[in-house]
Design goal:
The radius of gyration is 29 Å and the shape is flat. It contains eleven helices and no strands. It has two domains: 3-137, no CATH class; 140-253, Receptor-associated Protein (Up-down Bundle). It is mainly α.
Length: 293
């Protein structure tokens, strides 16, 4: 069989395997709490692991714990480390297939093309990590943006005489994004019998956003000491807004520094061309006079 035919077969098989693996890794799974409740209700306990869980073995214990924490910070509660492992292998294989296809189209296996194939494979393997990190960053930004309004609503309802749990329920409707989902999960834990302080601390541990962690710590401390909760919440809302304003000012102050590279790459060459272009034409083209139409 000709080598090109073998390469086409390998590319086809690799693409099929990577596409199937990616599709399987996108299937949502139930959270550990939901699985535990089903096991308790049916009085049956699963033994062993599914074959797909073996993909988690590409990570060591420390990496699995860190990846699990990252998935919680991103809000990907229906995604497991095994599925991330499947995506890494699948996208790596997809990058390899793309590289082999490029080599087949060019009809050459030079060092440059082989290097491009390796780069595509490595880039495909890193893509799931990049998506996860982006999801974590966007979710923390959304929570930071919603936190002041949430605290204002919480302070108003507490000051109006509503109990703190009821105030959480009312304030949850003001922030329907990621923060609202976390507050809803916290309220559910409290209704299941967990203490409010532990539920709030669990929320802070899941999200790991600095301002939310400080807010939870202050609320728990105020509740323990019997402080005026409405005043504490108002002060927290003001501090969060001030911190957000300071962060915006810091980003604004960094703009001149960030503009140096675009100006050097795009504006200065055009400026030099306008200034020295006519002089260069006079020296390079004998008899030319750019100033005369």
């Amino acid at each position: 069989m000709h080598s090109s035919s073998i390469l086409i077969i390998v590319i086809t098989i690799g693409f099929a395997i990577s596409a199937g693996t990616i599709a399987y890794s996108l299937i949502p799974v139930k959270s550990e709490a939901a699985k535990r409740l089903e096991e308790i209700e049916s009085l049956t306990f699963s033994r062993g692991t599914r074959w797909s869980d073996q993909f988690a073995r590409i990570f060591n214990d420390k990496q699995r714990r860190g990846l699990t924490q990252k998935l919680q910070e991103a809000g990907w509660y229906t995604v497991t480390p095994a599925q991330i492992g499947m995506r890494i292998l699948a996208f790596s294989l997809l990058g390899l297939v793309a590289g082999l296809t490029f080599i087949a189209v060019m009809g050459s296996a030079d060092t440059l093309y082989l290097g491009a194939c390796v780069m595509l494979t490595a880039g495909g393997g890193y893509l799931p990590y990049s998506q996860l990190n982006k999801a974590v960053k966007n979710r923390k930004k959304a929570i930071q943006k919603s936190l002041p309004d949430f605290l204002d609503m919480l302070a108003s309802t507490v000051q109006a005489g509503l109990a703190f749990n009821g105030a959480l329920t009312q304030a949850m409707e003001v922030v329907p994004g990621p923060l609202g989902d976390e507050v809803k999960a916290t309220i559910s834990e409290v209704r299941l019998g967990r203490s409010r302080a532990d539920s709030l601390k669990s929320m802070a541990d899941r999200v790991r956003q600095d301002q939310l962690t400080a807010t939870v710590r202050a609320i728990v401390q105020a509740e323990r000491l019997g402080s005026n909760m409405a005043e504490v919440l108002e002060e927290l809302a003001e501090e969060v807004r001030n911190a957000r304003m300071m962060r915006a000012e810091e980003l604004a102050n960094l703009m001149p520094t960030k503009m140096v590279i675009p100006m050097a790459l795009f504006m200065l060459p055009a400026l030099f061309l306008m200034i020295f272009g006519a002089v260069a034409v006079q020296f390079l083209v004998p008899g030319a006079n750019p100033g005369v139409p």
